[in-house]
Amino acid sequence: MRAAVLQQPGRPVSIEELSLAEPRTGEVRVRILASGVCHSDLHLRDGEWPRPGPFVIGHEGAGVIEALGPGVEPSGGLQPGRLVALSWYAPCGRCPACRTGREWLCSGSGSSRHRMSDGSTRIQRADGTEIYPYCGIGTMSELVVVPASAAIPMPDGTEPEVAALIGCCVSTGVGAVTKTARVPSGAGVVVIGLGGVGLSAVMGAALAGADPIIAVDRVASKLELARSLGATEVVVAGPDPEATDAEIRAKAGSGPEYAFEAIGLASTIDQAIRLLPPGGTAVLIGMTPFAVRASFEVFPFVDGSRSILGTNYGFAVASTDFPRYAELQLAGRLPIERLIDRRIGLDDVEAAFDRLRTGDGLRNVITF
Asked: Which pTM value belongs to this model?
Protein backbone atom coordinates (compact mmCIF):
# COMPACT_ATOMS: atom_id res chain seq x y z
CA MET A 1 0.00 0.00 0.00
CA ARG A 2 1.05 3.62 -0.55
CA ALA A 3 0.94 5.88 2.49
CA ALA A 4 2.09 9.30 3.72
CA VAL A 5 4.79 8.73 6.34
CA LEU A 6 6.13 11.28 8.80
CA GLN A 7 9.51 10.03 9.91
CA GLN A 8 10.13 12.87 12.34
CA PRO A 9 8.00 15.86 13.42
CA GLY A 10 9.18 19.02 11.68
CA ARG A 11 10.15 17.18 8.49
CA PRO A 12 8.20 16.81 5.23
CA VAL A 13 6.19 13.64 4.77
CA SER A 14 7.28 10.99 2.27
CA ILE A 15 5.06 8.74 0.19
CA GLU A 16 6.16 5.16 0.77
CA GLU A 17 5.22 1.60 -0.15
CA LEU A 18 4.44 -0.25 3.08
CA SER A 19 3.11 -3.66 4.06
CA LEU A 20 0.01 -4.22 6.15
CA ALA A 21 -0.61 -7.30 8.27
CA GLU A 22 -3.98 -9.03 8.40
CA PRO A 23 -6.47 -7.84 11.01
CA ARG A 24 -6.27 -9.58 14.36
CA THR A 25 -9.04 -10.29 16.86
CA GLY A 26 -11.51 -7.40 17.06
CA GLU A 27 -10.05 -5.57 14.03
CA VAL A 28 -11.12 -4.82 10.46
CA ARG A 29 -9.28 -3.92 7.27
CA VAL A 30 -10.56 -0.87 5.41
CA ARG A 31 -9.70 0.40 1.92
CA ILE A 32 -9.54 4.17 2.31
CA LEU A 33 -11.51 6.25 -0.19
CA ALA A 34 -11.10 9.73 1.34
CA SER A 35 -8.93 11.37 3.99
CA GLY A 36 -9.21 14.98 5.12
CA VAL A 37 -6.14 17.09 5.79
CA CYS A 38 -6.71 18.51 9.29
CA HIS A 39 -4.87 21.15 11.29
CA SER A 40 -4.05 18.50 13.89
CA ASP A 41 -2.05 16.70 11.18
CA LEU A 42 -0.22 19.98 10.59
CA HIS A 43 0.59 20.36 14.30
CA LEU A 44 2.24 16.93 14.14
CA ARG A 45 3.94 17.61 10.79
CA ASP A 46 5.44 20.92 11.97
CA GLY A 47 6.73 19.60 15.29
CA GLU A 48 4.29 21.56 17.44
CA TRP A 49 3.08 18.27 18.91
CA PRO A 50 6.35 16.35 19.33
CA ARG A 51 5.71 12.62 19.35
CA PRO A 52 8.05 9.75 18.51
CA GLY A 53 7.34 8.20 15.11
CA PRO A 54 7.50 7.20 12.40
CA PHE A 55 3.79 7.60 11.65
CA VAL A 56 1.39 7.07 8.84
CA ILE A 57 -0.39 10.37 9.33
CA GLY A 58 -4.04 11.29 8.93
CA HIS A 59 -6.97 10.81 11.27
CA GLU A 60 -10.01 11.97 9.28
CA GLY A 61 -10.95 9.18 6.90
CA ALA A 62 -13.56 6.92 5.39
CA GLY A 63 -13.51 3.82 3.23
CA VAL A 64 -15.02 0.41 2.60
CA ILE A 65 -14.52 -2.67 4.74
CA GLU A 66 -12.47 -5.35 3.01
CA ALA A 67 -11.96 -7.97 5.73
CA LEU A 68 -13.09 -8.79 9.26
CA GLY A 69 -10.69 -10.11 11.86
CA PRO A 70 -11.50 -12.98 14.23
CA GLY A 71 -14.33 -12.23 16.62
CA VAL A 72 -15.88 -9.49 14.45
CA GLU A 73 -19.35 -10.59 13.48
CA PRO A 74 -20.82 -9.31 10.20
CA SER A 75 -23.66 -7.64 12.05
CA GLY A 76 -24.46 -4.06 12.83
CA GLY A 77 -23.29 -3.05 9.38
CA LEU A 78 -19.69 -4.28 9.55
CA GLN A 79 -19.86 -6.28 6.33
CA PRO A 80 -17.28 -6.27 3.53
CA GLY A 81 -18.15 -3.56 1.03
CA ARG A 82 -19.85 -1.28 3.57
CA LEU A 83 -18.79 2.37 3.75
CA VAL A 84 -17.50 3.33 7.20
CA ALA A 85 -16.29 6.57 8.75
CA LEU A 86 -13.29 6.11 11.02
CA SER A 87 -13.21 7.43 14.57
CA TRP A 88 -9.80 8.61 15.76
CA TYR A 89 -10.70 7.73 19.33
CA ALA A 90 -11.73 4.08 19.28
CA PRO A 91 -13.30 3.40 22.69
CA CYS A 92 -12.25 0.43 24.80
CA GLY A 93 -15.78 0.00 26.19
CA ARG A 94 -14.46 -0.99 29.62
CA CYS A 95 -12.97 2.05 31.37
CA PRO A 96 -15.01 4.29 33.72
CA ALA A 97 -15.48 6.95 31.01
CA CYS A 98 -16.81 4.43 28.49
CA ARG A 99 -19.11 2.87 31.07
CA THR A 100 -20.66 6.29 31.73
CA GLY A 101 -21.12 7.13 28.03
CA ARG A 102 -18.17 9.53 27.76
CA GLU A 103 -16.17 7.76 25.07
CA TRP A 104 -14.23 10.92 24.23
CA LEU A 105 -12.48 10.54 27.61
CA CYS A 106 -11.65 6.83 27.19
CA SER A 107 -8.51 5.92 29.13
CA GLY A 108 -8.11 2.47 27.62
CA SER A 109 -8.00 3.35 23.94
CA GLY A 110 -4.90 2.62 21.91
CA SER A 111 -5.66 5.72 19.84
CA SER A 112 -3.95 8.14 22.24
CA ARG A 113 -0.79 6.00 22.01
CA HIS A 114 -1.02 5.74 18.21
CA ARG A 115 -1.18 1.98 18.47
CA MET A 116 -3.68 -0.79 18.11
CA SER A 117 -5.51 -1.78 21.29
CA ASP A 118 -2.85 -4.39 22.10
CA GLY A 119 -0.08 -1.78 21.89
CA SER A 120 1.31 -2.96 18.56
CA THR A 121 1.07 -1.85 14.92
CA ARG A 122 0.11 -3.67 11.72
CA ILE A 123 2.31 -1.53 9.45
CA GLN A 124 5.90 -2.19 8.39
CA ARG A 125 8.50 -1.11 5.90
CA ALA A 126 10.18 -3.72 3.73
CA ASP A 127 13.16 -3.75 6.12
CA GLY A 128 10.90 -4.62 9.05
CA THR A 129 10.77 -1.11 10.58
CA GLU A 130 7.50 -0.63 12.42
CA ILE A 131 5.36 2.34 11.39
CA TYR A 132 2.60 3.58 13.71
CA PRO A 133 -0.89 4.72 12.66
CA TYR A 134 -1.57 8.26 13.84
CA CYS A 135 -4.44 8.19 16.36
CA GLY A 136 -4.65 4.46 15.75
CA ILE A 137 -6.04 4.85 12.21
CA GLY A 138 -3.43 6.60 9.97
CA THR A 139 -5.88 7.50 7.20
CA MET A 140 -3.46 8.95 4.62
CA SER A 141 -2.98 5.45 3.30
CA GLU A 142 -4.60 3.21 0.73
CA LEU A 143 -5.34 0.56 3.36
CA VAL A 144 -5.69 0.52 7.14
CA VAL A 145 -6.33 -2.02 9.87
CA VAL A 146 -8.32 -0.50 12.74
CA PRO A 147 -10.24 -1.64 15.82
CA ALA A 148 -13.79 -2.61 14.88
CA SER A 149 -15.03 0.06 17.33
CA ALA A 150 -13.34 2.71 15.15
CA ALA A 151 -15.25 1.71 11.99
CA ILE A 152 -18.72 3.25 11.98
CA PRO A 153 -21.16 2.16 9.22
CA MET A 154 -22.61 5.07 7.29
CA PRO A 155 -26.14 5.38 5.90
CA ASP A 156 -26.68 4.42 2.27
CA GLY A 157 -26.04 7.36 -0.05
CA THR A 158 -23.33 8.99 2.08
CA GLU A 159 -20.38 10.18 -0.01
CA PRO A 160 -16.94 9.02 1.20
CA GLU A 161 -15.64 12.59 1.42
CA VAL A 162 -18.59 13.57 3.62
CA ALA A 163 -18.08 10.50 5.80
CA ALA A 164 -14.40 11.40 6.20
CA LEU A 165 -15.20 14.90 7.46
CA ILE A 166 -17.79 13.51 9.87
CA GLY A 167 -14.89 11.51 11.33
CA CYS A 168 -13.24 14.66 12.69
CA CYS A 169 -14.06 18.28 11.88
CA VAL A 170 -17.84 17.95 11.64
CA SER A 171 -18.22 15.94 14.83
CA THR A 172 -15.86 18.30 16.62
CA GLY A 173 -17.56 21.53 15.53
CA VAL A 174 -21.21 20.51 15.49
CA GLY A 175 -20.80 18.55 18.71
CA ALA A 176 -19.14 21.48 20.49
CA VAL A 177 -22.34 23.47 19.98
CA THR A 178 -25.02 20.81 20.35
CA LYS A 179 -23.42 18.40 22.84
CA THR A 180 -20.71 20.18 24.84
CA ALA A 181 -22.36 23.61 25.22
CA ARG A 182 -25.93 22.45 24.52
CA VAL A 183 -26.73 25.85 23.07
CA PRO A 184 -30.47 26.54 23.44
CA SER A 185 -32.65 27.96 20.70
CA GLY A 186 -32.46 31.76 20.56
CA ALA A 187 -29.08 32.05 22.30
CA GLY A 188 -26.48 34.40 20.81
CA VAL A 189 -23.35 32.72 19.45
CA VAL A 190 -20.03 33.94 18.05
CA VAL A 191 -17.65 31.57 16.24
CA ILE A 192 -14.05 32.78 15.95
CA GLY A 193 -12.12 31.09 13.14
CA LEU A 194 -13.74 29.55 10.07
CA GLY A 195 -11.75 26.50 9.13
CA GLY A 196 -13.52 23.17 8.82
CA VAL A 197 -14.19 22.99 12.56
CA GLY A 198 -15.35 26.60 12.88
CA LEU A 199 -17.70 26.32 9.91
CA SER A 200 -19.03 23.09 11.39
CA ALA A 201 -19.71 25.03 14.61
CA VAL A 202 -21.65 27.58 12.54
CA MET A 203 -23.73 24.73 11.09
CA GLY A 204 -24.24 23.34 14.58
CA ALA A 205 -25.43 26.73 15.82
CA ALA A 206 -27.91 26.89 12.94
CA LEU A 207 -29.16 23.40 13.82
CA ALA A 208 -29.61 24.51 17.44
CA GLY A 209 -31.63 27.58 16.40
CA ALA A 210 -29.13 30.07 17.84
CA ASP A 211 -29.72 33.75 17.08
CA PRO A 212 -27.72 35.75 16.31
CA ILE A 213 -24.89 33.60 14.89
CA ILE A 214 -21.83 35.80 14.37
CA ALA A 215 -18.96 34.40 12.30
CA VAL A 216 -15.49 35.97 12.63
CA ASP A 217 -12.51 35.50 10.33
CA ARG A 218 -10.01 37.57 8.36
CA VAL A 219 -10.81 35.88 5.02
CA ALA A 220 -13.81 37.34 3.17
CA SER A 221 -14.64 34.17 1.22
CA LYS A 222 -14.93 32.18 4.46
CA LEU A 223 -17.28 34.79 5.87
CA GLU A 224 -19.45 34.55 2.77
CA LEU A 225 -19.63 30.77 3.10
CA ALA A 226 -20.41 31.05 6.82
CA ARG A 227 -23.35 33.29 6.03
CA SER A 228 -24.68 30.74 3.53
CA LEU A 229 -24.29 28.00 6.18
CA GLY A 230 -26.38 29.82 8.76
CA ALA A 231 -24.44 32.78 10.16
CA THR A 232 -26.71 35.79 10.58
CA GLU A 233 -23.84 38.27 10.96
CA VAL A 234 -20.20 38.33 9.90
CA VAL A 235 -17.21 40.30 11.19
CA VAL A 236 -13.86 40.75 9.47
CA ALA A 237 -11.12 40.21 12.06
CA GLY A 238 -8.96 43.30 11.66
CA PRO A 239 -5.57 44.34 13.04
CA ASP A 240 -7.18 46.24 15.95
CA PRO A 241 -8.59 43.68 18.44
CA GLU A 242 -10.59 46.33 20.30
CA ALA A 243 -12.32 47.43 17.10
CA THR A 244 -13.11 43.82 16.22
CA ASP A 245 -14.52 43.25 19.72
CA ALA A 246 -16.65 46.37 19.46
CA GLU A 247 -18.14 45.25 16.14
CA ILE A 248 -18.93 41.80 17.52
CA ARG A 249 -20.62 43.29 20.59
CA ALA A 250 -22.62 45.69 18.43
CA LYS A 251 -23.98 42.76 16.41
CA ALA A 252 -24.51 40.52 19.45
CA GLY A 253 -26.93 42.72 21.35
CA SER A 254 -26.74 41.56 24.97
CA GLY A 255 -24.58 38.56 24.02
CA PRO A 256 -22.82 36.64 22.75
CA GLU A 257 -23.96 34.15 25.34
CA TYR A 258 -21.62 31.56 23.81
CA ALA A 259 -18.22 32.26 22.23
CA PHE A 260 -16.59 29.39 20.32
CA GLU A 261 -12.84 29.61 19.66
CA ALA A 262 -11.95 27.34 16.74
CA ILE A 263 -8.36 28.32 15.92
CA GLY A 264 -6.17 27.45 18.90
CA LEU A 265 -4.34 30.76 19.38
CA ALA A 266 -3.76 32.37 22.77
CA SER A 267 -4.92 35.73 21.38
CA THR A 268 -8.28 34.43 20.14
CA ILE A 269 -8.82 32.34 23.27
CA ASP A 270 -8.39 35.56 25.25
CA GLN A 271 -10.80 37.28 22.84
CA ALA A 272 -13.49 34.62 23.30
CA ILE A 273 -13.32 35.03 27.07
CA ARG A 274 -13.34 38.83 27.13
CA LEU A 275 -16.34 38.99 24.75
CA LEU A 276 -18.58 37.23 27.25
CA PRO A 277 -21.39 39.09 28.99
CA PRO A 278 -22.27 38.11 32.57
CA GLY A 279 -23.32 34.47 32.59
CA GLY A 280 -21.68 33.81 29.24
CA THR A 281 -19.69 30.73 28.26
CA ALA A 282 -16.50 30.44 26.22
CA VAL A 283 -16.09 27.07 24.48
CA LEU A 284 -12.51 26.24 23.49
CA ILE A 285 -12.39 23.94 20.45
CA GLY A 286 -9.11 24.91 18.76
CA MET A 287 -6.02 22.89 19.67
CA THR A 288 -2.88 24.88 20.44
CA PRO A 289 0.74 23.78 20.11
CA PHE A 290 2.01 22.11 23.27
CA ALA A 291 2.88 24.41 26.23
CA VAL A 292 0.83 27.40 24.99
CA ARG A 293 -0.78 29.26 27.89
CA ALA A 294 -3.63 31.77 27.88
CA SER A 295 -4.78 34.17 30.60
CA PHE A 296 -7.75 36.29 31.54
CA GLU A 297 -8.69 38.93 34.09
CA VAL A 298 -10.07 37.02 37.04
CA PHE A 299 -12.32 39.52 38.86
CA PRO A 300 -14.86 40.17 36.07
CA PHE A 301 -14.80 36.48 35.16
CA VAL A 302 -15.80 35.43 38.68
CA ASP A 303 -17.99 38.46 39.40
CA GLY A 304 -19.93 37.88 36.17
CA SER A 305 -20.35 34.13 36.72
CA ARG A 306 -18.75 33.44 33.35
CA SER A 307 -17.68 29.93 32.29
CA ILE A 308 -15.04 28.20 30.16
CA LEU A 309 -15.63 24.79 28.59
CA GLY A 310 -13.07 22.64 26.85
CA THR A 311 -14.41 20.23 24.26
CA ASN A 312 -12.64 17.19 22.88
CA TYR A 313 -14.09 15.67 19.68
CA GLY A 314 -17.38 17.49 20.26
CA PHE A 315 -18.15 14.89 22.97
CA ALA A 316 -18.68 12.40 20.14
CA VAL A 317 -20.10 8.96 20.72
CA ALA A 318 -19.15 7.85 17.22
CA SER A 319 -21.47 4.85 16.93
CA THR A 320 -24.55 7.06 17.27
CA ASP A 321 -23.36 10.54 16.35
CA PHE A 322 -21.62 9.72 13.04
CA PRO A 323 -24.73 8.17 11.42
CA ARG A 324 -26.90 10.96 12.83
CA TYR A 325 -24.75 13.66 11.25
CA ALA A 326 -24.78 11.74 7.96
CA GLU A 327 -28.58 11.51 8.04
CA LEU A 328 -28.78 15.27 8.63
CA GLN A 329 -26.49 15.82 5.64
CA LEU A 330 -28.60 13.56 3.43
CA ALA A 331 -31.70 15.47 4.55
CA GLY A 332 -30.11 18.79 3.54
CA ARG A 333 -29.90 20.11 7.10
CA LEU A 334 -26.11 19.80 7.49
CA PRO A 335 -24.40 20.75 4.20
CA ILE A 336 -21.06 19.09 5.00
CA GLU A 337 -20.17 18.76 1.32
CA ARG A 338 -19.71 22.53 1.10
CA LEU A 339 -16.69 22.37 3.42
CA ILE A 340 -14.66 20.57 0.74
CA ASP A 341 -12.43 23.02 -1.08
CA ARG A 342 -10.13 20.70 -3.04
CA ARG A 343 -9.92 17.02 -3.84
CA ILE A 344 -6.25 16.09 -4.08
CA GLY A 345 -4.00 13.09 -4.49
CA LEU A 346 -1.78 11.55 -1.84
CA ASP A 347 1.30 13.12 -3.44
CA ASP A 348 -0.17 16.60 -2.86
CA VAL A 349 -0.33 16.48 0.93
CA GLU A 350 2.62 18.85 1.51
CA ALA A 351 0.96 21.47 -0.70
CA ALA A 352 -2.20 21.03 1.37
CA PHE A 353 -0.17 21.69 4.52
CA ASP A 354 1.17 24.89 2.93
CA ARG A 355 -2.41 26.04 2.35
CA LEU A 356 -3.34 25.25 5.95
CA ARG A 357 -0.47 27.38 7.25
CA THR A 358 -1.69 30.43 5.34
CA GLY A 359 -5.40 29.84 5.95
CA ASP A 360 -5.98 29.41 2.22
CA GLY A 361 -9.23 27.67 1.40
CA LEU A 362 -11.25 25.16 3.39
CA ARG A 363 -10.92 21.38 3.68
CA ASN A 364 -8.54 19.57 1.36
CA VAL A 365 -9.59 15.93 0.96
CA ILE A 366 -7.28 13.23 -0.36
CA THR A 367 -9.22 10.87 -2.59
CA PHE A 368 -8.01 7.36 -3.46
From this structure: 0.94
